Amino acid sequence: MTGIYGNGVALSEKVLDQLWARQAVTLNNISNVDTPGFKSQYVTFEEELGRRISEANQVRRHQKRAVSDAIDRSRSWLNTTWDESSRLDGNNVDMDQEQVELVRTAYEYQFLLNSFTNDITRLKNAAKAF
């Protein structure tokens, strides 16, 4: 969604979706803390999103929708931690780390949602002035 909103709405939507996926994976790790042989997973997306936007900014002068397309094409990656295990049953879920990740992701999600809501509210108020 471009236009008066620019790429902010599309970027916010993409990041919110990817944070939601990260939270779901973290909750899955927590729920499998007692499952023998379970390997923890994690979601990454920041590096790819940043790289795609940076590349799009370099060609922006030539293609108007480069940044928007870069946001649309970015994906999150589900990774599995195979080689770390300190338990005899082969499970490698670290509850302390998972809880920190869950809280951090929740704060990031809430911050971004509040920021997005404030942006939309400012636009609505500006539109009322006309």
Could you characterize the architecture of this molecule?
A two-stranded antiparallel ribbon has the order 1-2. The chain has 130 residues and is mainly α. Helix content is 61%, strand content 6%. It has helices spanning 8-31, 46-58, 66-73, 95-128; strands spanning 41-44, 77-80. It contains 4 helices and 2 strands, in the order αβααβα. 15% of the residues are buried. The protein is elongated and about 65 Å long.
What's the short story on this structure?
This protein has helices at 8-31, 46-58, 66-73, 95-128, and strands at 41-44, 77-80. It is mainly alpha-helical.
Give structural attributes.
single chain; 130 residues; 2 strands; 61% helix
Average predicted local confidence, pLDDT: 88
First-residue to last-residue Cα separation: 22 Å
Report the oligomer: single chain
Q: Indicate the radius of gyration in whole angstroms.
A: 19 Å
Bin the helical content: 55-70%
Order of helices and strands: HEHHEH
Which class of secondary structure composition applies to the elements? mainly alpha
Strand fraction? 5-15%
Instruction: Summarize the main sheet.
Output: 2 strands, antiparallel
Q: What strand line-up does the widest sheet have?
A: 1-2
The dominant shape is elongated
Question: So how many helices?
Answer: 4
Count of β-strands: 2
Low-confidence stretches: none
Give the topology, please:
Layout: H1 8-31, E1 41-44, H2 46-58, H3 66-73, E2 77-80, H4 95-128
Helix pairs in contact: 1-4, 2-3
